[in-house]
Amino acid sequence: MRKLRWLIGLVCVLFLQSCNLKSNDSQGVVVAECYGKYLYESDLVGVVAPGTDIVDSLNRVNAFVDSWIRRELLLHQAEKNLPKEQLDFSKQIQEYQNSLVIYAYETQLAEQKLDTVVTDEEIETYYEQNKENFQLRQTMVRAAYVILKSDCKQKNDFQKLMRDSDTLMLQRLDIMATYYAVSSYLDVDDWLRLDELLKIIPIEIYNTESFLKKNRFVMFDKDDFTYLVRFEDFLMEEEISPLDMERENIRSMILMKRKKDLLDALKSRLYKKAAKDHAFEVYTGSSVQIIENKEDK
């Protein structure tokens, strides 16, 4: 704090030319003033990170004070020129505060009460009941690739291993790729978007389905690199996405549904209890009847 006060004093000398720090009994030391509004020493806490050298510290405090003054000048100009009704944000502020309070409570309630365990059986059931909602928007592939320098002496070894469908070959590939490959991806259990793969492996494909059906292994040279790709499986756009690809997505959807049900049940209980305790009243007879009938259902 002593260093901060020294910096503030220096800023006031350099930035404001002459600045006598004033003290406000309720708020503390005043750093700057603009149209009757004050920037206090306490407002500068955290502006300078611990360990920052003197020059950078001075620049950061200087910039903060300058930004504050420019903001207050613009705010003063806006308040002077806007109609009175456009300056009243009390309703919006209250609504925003209410939303924040409700969100904080709902979040706390979910953390305390929500069952977050989702079984494989629940995921599979949800998938089977909602398959039509898991239509693919892109062509997906399960593939492995290796990128080598064109003059790599192990090129033929990589070619033999990449052609072999035995998964044990992938372990050998992984070891070799560590030493000789420019880049590699060997997790054939994961699904990849074909368009993302083609950003890495520049294959020219004109008929996607025909190409994937006919080519399980591709090897070609381009721009001093050799590309080797093995396709394990593929799914065309608009086909149903496989369960393994959607597992985490389904888990999230189930949890969102549980959270909604939890909060809906809370709102219903609160409403029924408040109605029983006569905690609210609607001053239109027909409206009261409509609300009560709706809750009774």
Brief characterization of the structure:
This protein has 297 residues and is of the alpha+beta class.
Task: Kindly describe this structure.
The protein has 297 residues and is an alpha+beta fold. It has 3 domains: 2-85, no CATH class; 89-134 and 249-297, no CATH class; 136-235, Chitinase A, domain 3. It is 54% helix and 15% strand. It has 10 helices and 8 strands. The strands form 2 sheets. Strands 4, 5, 6, 7 and 8 form a 5-stranded antiparallel beta sheet that branches. A 3-stranded antiparallel beta sheet has the order 1-2-3. Helix 1 crosses helix 2 (54-81) and helix 4 packs across helix 9. The longest helix has 34 residues, at 243-276. The radius of gyration is 33 Å and the shape is flat. The two termini are 63 Å apart. Residues 13-21 and 290-297 have low confidence and may be disordered.
Keywords:
Chitinase A, domain 3; 8 strands; 10 helices; 297 residues; 54% helix; five-stranded antiparallel sheet; alpha+beta; three-stranded antiparallel sheet; flat
CATH topology of the largest domain: Chitinase A, domain 3
**What pattern of helices and strands is seen along the backbone?**
HEEEHHHEHHEEHHEEHH
Helix content: 40-55%
CATH domain class of the largest domain: Alpha Beta
What is the overall pLDDT average?
85
Tell me the total number of β-strands: 8
The CATH architecture assignment of the largest domain turns out to be Roll
Overall body shape: flat
Oligomer: single chain
Uncertain segments are 13-21, 290-297
Number of domains: 3
Relative strand content: 15-25%
**Biggest β-sheet: count, sense, barrel?**
5 strands, antiparallel
Supply the helix-strand structural class.
Answer: alpha+beta
* Radius of gyration over all CA atoms, rounded: 33 Å
The DSSP helix count reads 10
Instruction: Kindly report how far apart the N and C termini lie.
Output: 63 Å
